[in-house]
Amino acid sequence: MADGPFNSGCISCFGLVYIISVSLFFSSFEILNPNKIGIAKDTMTNKLTEDIIYFEGHYFLGLTKKFEEYPARSIEMDLQNIDATSSDNSQTVIDVSVQYKLVPDEIFQLYSKFSSSYQSYYESQVREVVIKEAQNWATSPDFYVNRVDIGKAMRSTLKGIFNTSHAELVGFQLRSVDLPIRLEESIRDTIVAAQLTTTTTIQQKATLKRTEAANVEAEADAEIEEIDATATATGTLIKAEATAAYTRKVTKARADALLYTARAMNLSKAEMFELLWQQTVASNPSYSKVSVGFEDTSMADNLITTSNDPFARDHRRPNGCQLGVAQLPGAGEGESRG
């Protein structure tokens, strides 16, 4: 019974030591979150564990060591209302944005130089560069028409500063430039006038282009009309030539047929013309006329004609012979004039 309390006390002490030991063991682990890099620092002596850079994960460092953490991603820095002076001594207020990233292999040098105050150092460098660079540019027109070039100049200077300060410049933006109101109004009026001139010039060029297009269209229409007229004239000429050729062929065919008939029937010249007269009367019964009144009315070369006018005019022969027009048999009216 005497050993009972002693054994209980030993067990209690052992349990307490075990709990403390486990607590101390787990306290020796440190967690480094994602997007972080770190270096181990002894909180008792403030000494760093050299040559070891830690990235995200769980690490056994010991009871007295902790992480000095730094961002592994890009760091955003917005600086507003930076008072600067241009080369023509005009006051300007500038806003900029900067993105930079720490170089992991140079974290120990960064810590030795800035400890944890590197952000304030970079901010002061950016402000200084913006103020100095603004003095190289005139308010008008540089800060109105050359802002891209101004931003490039500031970025170039900052890139060199970050590269020598254990960081890398990722981005730079010249966000805004506020100038004196009086100067802004003057430049605004100048820009508006220039824009109005440009607009007027563009409108004049557009009018000229439309006029040229109308002239081209008119010339094209004239050419089309000329082509149409030429085609019409050519078509009329071709049609006339075809009609004439057709008339010649028909006339020749009739003459050949008449001559063939006369030869076949052994007709005299007078009989042949009598046949022609009969054919004429048969084909034009209402308006057929025969010229008579020659000294020899039986001559075979009396003219046989047709006319659309039922009342033909008298004709005079050069030898003084009276030429009468008599209505042929079969005509619509039996009247003759001598």
Annotation keywords:
338 residues; alpha+beta; 4-stranded antiparallel beta sheet; 3-stranded antiparallel beta sheet; 7 helices; 11 strands; 51% helix; elongated; disordered C terminus
Q: How would you describe what is shown here?
A:
This protein is an alpha+beta fold. It is built from seven helices and eleven strands. It has helices at residues 3-27, 107-114, 118-134, 142-145, 147-163, 181-265, 269-283, and strands at residues 29-32, 36-42, 57-60, 65-71, 75-85, 91-102, 167-178, 288-292, 304-306, 315-316, 322-327. Strands 9-8-11-10 form a four-stranded antiparallel beta sheet, with helices on one face. A three-stranded antiparallel beta sheet has the order 5-6-7. The longest helix has 85 residues, at 181-265. It is elongated, with a radius of gyration of 61 Å.
Summarize the structure.
With 338 residues, the protein is of the alpha+beta class.
Q: Roughly what percent helix?
A: 40-55%
Order of helix and strand elements from N to C terminus: HEEEEEEHHHHEHHEEEE
Uncertain segments of ≥5 residues (pLDDT<50)? 291-338
Structural class: alpha+beta
**CA distance, first residue to last residue:** 190 Å
Number of strands: 11
What is the average per-residue confidence, as pLDDT, rounded to a whole number? Answer: 75
The order of strands across the largest sheet is 9-8-11-10
Gyration radius (Cα, Å) is 61 Å
Binned strand content = 15-25%
- How would you characterize the largest beta sheet? 4 strands, antiparallel
